[in-house]
Amino acid sequence: MRNLTSIPTEPGKSSAAWIKKRSRIKVLVNWFLLQCGEIIPFTQKKQFFYRLMGVKIGKNVQIMPNVFFDIFFPEMITIEDNVVIGIGCFIACHEFNPTEFRYGPVTFKKNSLLGARSFILPGIIIGENSLVGAQSVVHKDVPDNVIAFGSPLQFKPIQPKQETQSSNNIQQPSSDLTQTPAQVEKEIQDNLNSRVEISSPEKVQELQ
Question: Do 130 and 112 touch, CB atoms closer than 8 A?
Answer without folding.
Answer: yes
